[in-house]
Every structure is written in C-alpha cells, then in structure tokens.
Amino acid sequence: MEKLFSYGTLRSKEIQRQIFNKILIGTADQVMGYKLKSLKIEEEFGMADYVVAVASENSTDTIHGVVFTISNADLAKVDLFESNAYRRVQVTLHSGETAWIYIEN
Questions:
Q1: How many Å apart are CA 33 and CA 55, to the nearest integer?
Q2: Could you give the CA distance from residue 44 to residue 47 in angstroms, rounded to a whole number?
Q3: DSSP for 21-64?
Q4: pLDDT digits (tens, 9 = 90+) for 32-68
Q5: According to the UniProt entry, where is the signal peptide (predicted)?
Q6: Measured between alpha carbons, how far is 89 from 54 in angstroms, rounded to an integer?
Q7: Distance (Å, rounded) from C-alpha 79 to C-alpha 87?
Q8: Is the CATH number 3.10.490.10 carried by domain 2-104?
C-alpha cells in the first residue's frame, strides 16, 4: 500500500469514482516547504485552471490537503490521470508519514 497526499482534484469524490471506481477515505494533513502555483492545462475543450505544488524557499510555507492509503495499482492509475505538467515525488508530511505528492514537472 502507498500513501498519496492530495491538495486538489483528487479530493473530489467524482474524480475518485472516475479513477478508482470507489470513494477514498483520507486524513487531513499538510506538507511543509511547498506552496501552490496556478497552472493552465490544455484539455479537450480548451484551457483549464489548476494548481500545482512547487518547492518553496520558505520552509514554513504549507499546503493543506488529505492523505489517502491506496494500492500500487491505484497509484499507477493516478500516474495516468495526472498530466505531464506534474511529476510524482515522495515527501514527509507534517504528521511524519511519508507520502507521494504530484509537483510541478
């Protein structure tokens, strides 16, 4: 099993049903030393606005989100879902847990 920290789209129940065919149960957590940046991604019907985590020079910058426990197979599904604007890296969360997070590519 893997830990996945989500700060955006993956917290949506609709998106979870689309990707995993189920609703995930998560726990609130934070990642320190990162901040959110606006991002435009071209989609089928035009440009869409999203946010992406980027490393911050300020170690007190914090992103609030949710950490989910998912299978390796589900993590592979998320890799396919995320656009090439994101890359997956491991971080240590405020709780002390290690989790995957998608950051700016």
A1: 6
A2: 8
A3: SS---EEEEEEESEEEEEEEEEETTEEEEEEEEEE-S-TT-EEE
A4: 999 999 877 566 666 667 789 999 999 999 999 999 9
A5: none
A6: 11
A7: 8
A8: yes
- pLDDT value for 45: 64
53 and 63 in contact (C-beta within 8 Å)? Answer: yes
Domain boundaries, the chain: 2-104
Query: Virtual CA dihedral for 78, 94, 38, 8, nearest 10 degrees?
Result: 40
Residues 98 and 105: their CA atoms lie apart, in Å, by 20
**Tokens at residue 62, please?**
């914090």
pTM for this structure? Answer: 0.89
